[in-house]
């Protein structure tokens, strides 16, 4: 674990910027930016365009360490460069912004009022490359819509992957998101809190 980045995350101010649109959500993000589908042909051109968008955001003077503590990157963005430096290195060395990597591959179909993460193939390889690219941590999202057994399944999956990630020296952000439109949102939140605390109680002192 990078001690400087750790202190920045632990004691620093600012929000975490989400720059992690995947291939599935990128067309909509480009459309909102003003780039329609007829402006590119195929995934390669699409990813080139969205990286230009992200580069414009990242290099903006307003996107700095005083306002932004961390940035979550899509794998494709992690593998690219900004102004001649790997994206993660540019964020940290030029902006003082801690880089994280989105590792989930999207959501599985809803079961028991929740959506687990899809299986993550070649996770060990992805984590190894994240370390090589100087990522500080990871982010992974699942969704809970109703109380019930699905809450426990989501939390168990999140913490199971978190333990695997910690072994590599990366710091995992767990993201069991409660659907804001849930008709039983308060019940979900109470159950989620209890499940998270139960998992935390199982962890060691470190």
UniProtKB/TrEMBL annotation:
* Domain of life where this protein originates: Bacteria
Stated EC number for the protein is 4.1.2.13
Give the enzyme's main class according to its UniProt record, as a single word: lyase
Query: Which keywords does UniProt give here?
Result: Glycolysis, Lyase
Q: Which Pfam families match?
A: Glycolytic
Answer whether the UniProt record assigns the keyword Phosphoprotein to this protein: no
The GO molecular function terms of this record are:
fructose-bisphosphate aldolase activity
Pathway(s) per entry: Carbohydrate degradation; glycolysis; D-glyceraldehyde 3-phosphate and glycerone phosphate from D-glucose: step 4/4
GO biological process terms on file:
glycolytic process
Which family does the UniProt entry place this protein in? Belongs to the class I fructose-bisphosphate aldolase family.
What is the designated name of this protein? fructose-bisphosphate aldolase
């Amino acid at each position: 674990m990078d001690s400087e980045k750790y202190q920045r995350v632990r004691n620093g101010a600012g929000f975490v910027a989400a720059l992690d649109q995947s291939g599935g959500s990128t067309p909509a993000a480009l459309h909102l930016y003003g780039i329609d589908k007829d402006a590119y042909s195929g995934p390669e051109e699409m990813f080139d365009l969205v990286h230009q968008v992200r580069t414009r955001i990242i290099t903006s003077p307003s996107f700095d360490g005083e306002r932004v503590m961390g940035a979550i990157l899509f794998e494709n963005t992690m593998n690219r460069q900004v102004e001649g430096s790997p994206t993660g290195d540019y964020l940290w060395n030029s902006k003082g912004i801690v880089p994280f990597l989105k590792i989930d591959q999207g959501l599985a179909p809803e079961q028991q009022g929740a959506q687990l993460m899809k299986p993550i193939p070649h996770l060990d390889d992805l984590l190894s490359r994240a370390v090589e690219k100087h990522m500080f941590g990871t982010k992974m999202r699942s969704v809970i819509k109703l109380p019930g057994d699905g809450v426990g399944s989501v939390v168990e999956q999140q913490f199971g992957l978190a333990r695997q990630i910690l072994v590599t020296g990366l710091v995992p952000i767990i993201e069991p998101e409660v659907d804001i439109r849930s008709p039983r949102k308060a019940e979900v939140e109470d159950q989620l809190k209890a499940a998270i605390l139960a998992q935390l109680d199982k962890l060691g002192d470190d």
